[in-house]
Design a protein that fits this description.
Length: about 725
């Protein structure tokens, strides 16, 4: 099984009615610490005839966005201020101890099956990172393969991915440090545990092994400083990676599009998308080559690798081009390719492609699109296809034969989220399931007979039965129905006085589905409510739902989120004085926009690793990947809608804003920390709220990136920071 994608979350109520319902919570004053002062150094430029002044351009760093001594010193001051505020809040120490107890609970992944071996990860107690293990039978003895702490006692080294060979004898794996996500590839002999001499740097991901284990295909960056320099190569074990054969490069657009009529503008955009990738068949004969043309579109070709080995020329035969749609899981089976996709099928479908004649018009639907369900994932076994559907943003798994005949649904423990780990050479599988009030359980399944046994269930020191989960529907500003999950302690009184965190994401086709989080239980135990809205821009309701929150339609996402807040207030869950919002990355943009557009609606906000300057975001790191999602201020047609919602450009001096906690990672290779730096400085200078009551805080983690790979201690600190901030601002510390 291969993964073709690159992969890292309202009823109308009038203002008068809202004002009448607001019951501000008593907020204890913060420690008497002065807000750091930030030098104003305006830079003015003209964009499409509009004058734009940036008072804090110097906080971006040097001309390349690299950290300068001045920005470094400023960051130290901001971090010290934030630590002074958060660390001295009453109850911080007790909360962190409770969170440590919850986060040191063992965690385990469902096994991946290769040959006779079962590969999985597990983290126990105070281990900073997950440890990789293998078993030689399903219930056999655990054997340690990789412990990152043995490699790096600091806990900052992460095993980012593992890719065993089909027979399980060898395992390629990637590692990076301090959250930079620049994985270096290594290879291990699984039987002995010895590392081979092979080592490939460059943000590497493995595509697939050769049938005889003599090498593998992989994707890396030619230049780590250029995120748009992807290259696909073939490595032979025992040779230096500089000798590896090149199949194709992102920069060589003629290889993909030389015979197509593309404008200069189209070609320029293609250079800076997620770019190319590939899938290979186990028998080494076929390669499917794809090129992401946007965040909602991809082109696909088929190549015969036997011909390439004979001639040295990789010839591409077009399968689909120029259509909106995304790829999902895929399986080569003989001369057929079974491919999950959303071309001409917003809710997804599973197609069979004849590799010898792959033209799109000849694709055959094995599992056609359904109007009532969205395909989120597909798993392949020897005789069974398992289609993971989203039904109103929660999982349903249906089984099919390879001719498309339905075999019924898998029985799931409840309403939640499930992941199935399977392999094409057997009918056994592992099912991981969880929900807001159900810790993860892993079942060992026989997909042919339907039999199952519980394989793993970590014990968590909370009472899930005390928690209630419901799903509600509300109308957004334009009347669109939107769903939302609400989680709280059973017996909660809907008196409008409950501290509530509203979470959202709304972008990139990412779905917010139910999942268990032990760290939310101290919040529930104190009477807190947690709500998760399934906003447009996500994938919960298919490609059309995603596209309804892209580009000039991005304001729909913010409207959906604001309408969710209004619904929670109107229906007695909370009030504007006890409502906080949270989101990260694209979700950090969401909360930043919500704060700027409706500051009176929220008491507090967390904007984690956010995009906030939407007029300059595309100029840094890998952010041009996202131009098809957001647009670019370089485009005169797209500039107006970006300026209209860009949080950094819509802060108003003197306006009373809620308390905000911005976070960033100094080693972030996705979203540059300049966004959080500049927005924190601007809001500290602009907010008309009392900074002792409603501060604007910034925490820049010097040992982290976008968030992936953080060791346990740093994750505990981060969760404690965010929870104590919300508990303080929403009046929960005295409860």
């Amino acid at each position: 099984m291969t993964r073709p994608f690159l992969t890292a979350l309202y009823t109308f109520c009038s203002l008068a009615a809202l004002s009448a319902m607001i019951c501000p919570a008593t907020v204890a004053a913060a420690p008497q610490t002065a807000v750091p002062q930030t030098r104003v150094q305006p830079v003015t430029e003209s964009l499409h005839g509009t004058q734009i002044t940036d008072p804090y351009r110097w906080l971006e760093g040097d001309e390349k966005g690299e950290l300068t001594p001045q920005v470094n010193a400023w960051t130290d001051q901001q971090n010290a201020y934030t630590r002074e505020v958060l660390d001295k809040l009453p109850g911080r120490e007790a909360l962190e101890l409770r969170l440590r107890e919850l986060m040191e609970v063992p965690s385990i992944s469902p096994p991946a099956m290769y040959g006779s071996r079962y590969f999985y990860s597990r983290r126990e107690g105070s281990q900073p990172q997950p440890v990789r293990y293998v078993r030689d039978s399903v219930n056999g003895r655990d054997r340690l393969l990789l412990d990152p702490q043995q490699i790096d006692p600091s806990g900052l080294t992460t095993v980012s991915w593992t890719a065993p060979s089909d027979d399980g004898r060898l395992m390629a794996f990637g590692m990076y440090s301090s959250g930079d996500e620049n994985s270096v590839l290594y290879v291990m002999d699984v039987g002995s545990g010895d590392w081979l001499a092979d080592e490939i740097p460059g943000k590497v991901n493995l595509i697939g092994w050769l049938p005889d284990n003599s090498g593998f295909y992989y994707r890396r960056l030619e230049d780590l400083d250029d995120p748009y320099s992807a290259i696909i190569k073939l490595h032979r074990l025992g040779t230096h990676h500089r000798q590896d054969a090149v199949l194709f490069r992102q920069r060589d657009l003629d290889f993909f599009y030389g015979d197509m009529d593309k404008s200069a503008a189209e070609l320029e955009l293609l250079k800076t998308t997620w770019g190319p990738g590939a899938m290979v068949s186990r028998d080494g004969r076929w390669m499917a080559v794809y090129y992401w043309t946007g965040t909602a579109s991809v082109d696909l070709w088929i190549a015969n690798l036997e011909e390439w080995r004979r001639s040295g020329e990789l010839k591409l035969v077009s399968a689909v081009s120029g259509k909106q749609g995304r790829l999902g899981e895929a399986l080569f089976k003989g001369d057929k390719l079974y491919l999950q996709n959303s071309f001409d099928a917003s809710n997804g479908r599973l197609s069979e492609i004849d590799l010898a004649d792959p033209a799109y018009a000849k694709w055959r639907d094995i599992v056609p699109e359904r109007e009532d369900l969205v395909i989120s994932d597909t798993s392949f076994a020897r005789d069974v296809i398992a289609v993971n559907y989203l039904a109103d943003a929660h999982t349903r798994i249906s089984l099919f034969d390879f001719d498309g005949k339905a075999r019924g649904d898998l029985a799931l423990p409840g309403i939640g989220s499930a992941y199935l780990s399977s392999a094409e050479d057997r009918n056994e599988a592992f099912l991981a399931f969880s929900s807001y009030n159900m810790p993860q359980r892993i079942y060992h399944l026989d997909l042919k007979t339907g039999s199952e046994t519980l394989w793993a269930q970590p014990e968590v020191p909370v009472d899930p039965d005390a928690i209630e989960v419901k799903q509600v529907w509300y109308k957004s500003k334009d009347g669109t129905p939107v769903s939302m999950f609400i989680v709280h302690r059973k017996g909660l009184k809907l008196d409008g006085n409950n501290p509530t965190i509203l979470y959202g994401y709304g972008g990139f086709d990412v779905s917010m589905t139910p999942g268990f989080s032990a760290t939310m239980y101290p919040w529930y135990e104190k009477g807190g409510v947690y709500a998760v809205a399934n906003l447009r821009g996500g994938g919960e309701y298919g490609s059309a739902w995603h596209e309804a929150g892209m580009l000039e339609r991005k304001q729909n996402v913010f409207d959906d989120f604001i309408a969710a807040a209004e619904w929670l207030i109107a229906n007695g869950y909370t009030n504007a004085g006890q409502l906080g919002i949270a989101g990260g990355s694209n979700g950090g943009l969401l909360t930043g926009a919500a704060v700027v557009q409706r500051p009176e609606l929220f008491a507090a906000a967390i904007s984690a690793v956010p995009l906030l300057d939407m007029l300059r975001y595309q100029d840094f790191l890998m952010a041009r990947y996202w131009v098809p999602e957001y647009g670019s201020s370089e485009d005169a047609q797209q500039f107006p809608f970006l300026k209209a919602y860009s949080p950094y450009h819509n802060v108003e001096p003197g306006k009373k804003y809620p308390a905000v906690l911005f976070t960033a990672g100094e080693n972030d290779k996705r979203v540059h920390p300049l966004h959080a730096r500049k927005m924190a400085a601007l809001m500290q200078a602009s907010s008309g709220s009392d900074p002792k009551q409603k501060p604007v805080l910034l925490w820049v983690d010097r040992d982290a990136g976008h968030g992936a790979g953080k060791p346990l201690d740093l994750r505990i600190r981060d969760v404690a920071d965010q929870r104590i901030f919300m508990m303080w601002q929403l009046g929960m510390l005295d409860r």
